[in-house]
Design a protein that fits this description.
The chain contains 17 helices and ten strands. The chain is of the alpha/beta class. The chain folds into two domains: about 280 residues, Alpha-Beta Barrel (TIM Barrel), CATH 3.20.20.70; about 100 residues, no CATH class. The protein has an eight-stranded parallel beta barrel with strand order 1-2-3-4-5-6-7-8, surrounded by seven helices. Strands 9-10 form a two-stranded parallel sheet. Helix 9 links the parallel strand 6 and strand 7. It is elongated and about 100 Å long. The relative contact order is 0.10.
Length: about 450
């Protein structure tokens, strides 16, 4: 609503000092603050790990290109554009995506996933040569004792295969990032040996993976801190540390933030949290929280559009109560909530209306607060609903709508409210006709 709408007197919003006094922020002084003061990046895995979910549809190339463009618009720094060794379609899509990045001079930097096998790395080298664009190879191998036992591997095998893959990347001119699957359940002795070997052979980055969603925030922080200590101890501070986490315990987003706090250079995620099993960290929720923490300066007004595009492209519906992008994120039918929002809007104060009953300001993400009418509503809901749609908030009409709402066990649909309005109009017309017919008799 614009200031002054619905008869409200335009009011100057609170000053910056007053705004600060209206919300006491217990989050201030939170230990996330250190990472706000240093650069970091996000890696979007929607086009690779995201489409590995057994319930998603692999998007067509046009949808993938639109997703890529929106990632760049949102300031996401890096993107996994696929696993070209998986087959012809995967290879062809990776070529198209890489060319789109180059031809449109996008800022986002591409990478591709690969097992620690020449058969997976060679297609990445081929795409890089064909397109003329640097593409990092994220070569992965399982490192946990349980994985080693299941595969009949030992540490010597892991070291031999990993270093051979990194050497092959170097031979082909493909930058390497070394990914240890199931890092969060791996023994530090094995990680120490693998990380030292990878660095000695020229890897750019160590990617710590919570492959099965095992970690807690404290565990994520300890693993990142331990890795940072190792790098400092061997003088390899230029090697990146990245975090890749899954959501099996519902902790993927907070784990990613904990990893950043502990010193990770980058964290991975997927739009809508799609991915293997219950999915990856939701990159849209990471962006939301990083913005609210004051750590992400890019324009996020198209973030909801991005989530909606991914939802449609992979055929995964957005839950109604999903943060920011869900239908109910900024929607209320509760009388107390609505009354406070309406009072703020009557003051002409959109800042206040957007925060009095919301920890996330809708306006900053291209959305707005929406008031509905339901069995928990009050007159404020009805009057505001009518005014928003250009109706005169007649008291009798408002009471009729509210009375109908009280008979329902859910929010009224717009058509149901209009039905009450039409009935009220018909009743008013009928009363007027009856009054007109009686008027001549009264004069006689």
């Amino acid at each position: 609503m614009k200031n002054g709408q619905n008869g409200a007197t335009p009011a100057k919003g609170p000053s910056a000092k007053r705004k600060a006094s209206l919300i006491f922020d217990w989050n201030l002084g939170d230990p996330v603050e250190p990472f706000l003061k240093r650069p970091f990046f996000l890696v979007d895995e929607s086009l690779r790990d995201g489409v590995q979910s057994p319930s998603v549809t692999d998007p067509g190339i046009e949808d993938k290109l639109r997703m890529l463009q929106l990632m760049d618009d949102l300031g996401i720094g890096r993107v996994d554009i696929g696993l070209p060794g998986a087959g012809k379609r995967a290879y062809d899509d990776v070529v198209r995506l890489a060319r789109y990045i180059k031809d449109n001079r996008l800022r986002i930097r591409p990478n591709c996933a690969a097992r620690t096998l020449q058969a997976d790395i060679a297609p990445i080298a081929d795409v890089q040569q064909k397109v003329g664009l640097e593409i990092e190879a994220y070569t992965f191998i399982g490192s946990s004792p349980i994985r080693q036992y299941a595969e009949s591997w030992d540490l010597d095998h892991l070291l031999r295969v990993s270093t051979a893959a990194i050497d092959f990347c170097a031979k082909e001119g493909v930058p390497n990032c070394f990914v240890t699957e199931d890092t969060t359940r791996s023994h530090p002795r094995a990680l120490d040996a693998l990380f030292r070997a990878a660095i000695a052979h020229g890897t750019r980055s160590l990617v710590l993976c919570d492959t099965v969603g095992h970690a807690t925030p404290d565990g994520a922080a300890r693993l990142v801190g331990w890795t940072r200590g190792l790098l400092a101890g061997i003088g390899a501070g230029s090697v990146r540390v990245e975090w890749h986490g899954h959501n099996d315990r519902g902790l993927a987003v907070i784990n990613a933030l904990a990893a950043l706090r502990a010193g990770a250079d980058g964290v991975h995620g997927c739009a809508l949290g799609i991915g293997e099993r219950v999915g990856n960290a939701a990159i849209d929720q990471l962006l939301l929280n990083l913005r609210l923490l004051g750590a992400y300066p890019h324009d996020l007004s198209r973030l909801v559009e991005y989530v909606q595009l991914v939802s449609k492209a992979v055929h995964v519906p957005i839950p109604k109560n999903y943060p920011l992008s869900g239908e109910d994120a900024f929607r209320t039918a509760t009388g107390v909530h609505a009354a406070a929002i309406v009072k703020a809007r009557k003051m002409g104060d959109t800042w206040l209306a957007d925060r009095v009953y919301s920890g996330v300001p809708a306006e900053g993400f291209g959305k707005r607060q929406t008031l509905e009418i339901g069995h928990m509503s009050g007159m404020s809901n009805v009057v505001y609903w009518l005014e928003e749609r250009g109706f005169e908030p007649d008291e009798a009409l408002a009471r009729s709508i509210l009375a109908k709402a009280k008979t329902f066990d859910r929010v009224l649909l717009e058509a149901e409210v209009f039905e009450v309005i039409r009935a009220a109009r018909e009743a008013a017309k009928g009363a007027k006709k009856r009054a007109t017919r009686r008027a001549p008799a009264a004069r006689a």
